[in-house]
Amino acid sequence: MKAVVQRVTRSSVTVDGIVIGKIQKGFNILLGVEENDEKEDAEILAAKIAKLRVFEDEEGKMNLALGDVGGEALVVSQFTLCADIKKGNRPSFTPAAKPDKAVPLYEYFMEQLKANGVSRVEHGSFGADMAVDIANDGPVTIIMDTAIWRKSK
């Protein structure tokens, strides 16, 4: 499971001209689910993101987590994060999970964010053509991949 986590002052996702998800201060999370991902990947990733200390404390140091600042999360599915570009110039998306596997893990990931103390979790529409508006704060952008944690076991 891969995620691009962006600290934002605001973010929204629009489908067919209608805003379907919107947050203020928090994280915009682009989430890619791969064929070999399991519930454990969603649990590990959600816990890591919820505890990620990239918000500034009173001394201006990145020392606070999402819950510490009353932050929100907007989770947008993005199978293109799973692209394989080893051969040629046209990406292959075969590593991306099919919707029957990806949708439940995407939803489970959002449940896990809530279970880890994120009070407000908004989302996009899985598989839709979405316009994502991101006001990246800092900018602070962190790339995460649960394959790293699987390899270290």
How would you explain this protein's 3D organization?
This protein has 153 residues and is an alpha/beta fold. The chain has one domain: D-tyrosyl-tRNA(Tyr) deacylase (D-tyrosyl-trna(Tyr) Deacylase, Chain: A). Helix content is 23%, strand content 37%. It is built from 3 helices and 8 strands, in the order βββαβββαββα. The protein has helices spanning 39-50, 99-115, 146-151; strands at residues 2-15, 18-23, 26-32, 55-56, 62-64, 72-77, 121-123, 131-145. Strands 1, 2, 3, 6, 7 and 8 form a 6-stranded mixed sheet that branches. A hairpin with a 5-residue loop joins strand 4 and strand 5. Helix 1 packs parallel to helix 2. The longest helix has 17 residues, at 99-115. The chain is globular, with a radius of gyration of 15 Å.
Could you say what the CATH architecture is?
3-Layer(bba) Sandwich
Query: How many beta strands in the DSSP annotation?
Result: 8
CATH H-level homologous superfamily name: D-tyrosyl-tRNA(Tyr) deacylase
Write down the overall mean pLDDT: 95
Q: What's the main sheet like?
A: 6 strands, mixed
CATH topology: D-tyrosyl-trna(Tyr) Deacylase, Chain: A
Element-level helix/strand string: EEEHEEEHEEH
Number of helices: 3
CATH level-1 class:
Alpha Beta
C-alpha geometry = globular
Residue fraction in strands: 35-45%
**Backbone CA Rg:** 15 Å
Query: Which percent range fits the helix content?
Result: 10-25%
Give the helix/strand class.
alpha/beta
How many structural domains in the coordinates?
A: 1
Catalogue the unreliable spans.
none
- Measured between the Cα atoms of the first and last residue, the distance is 16 Å
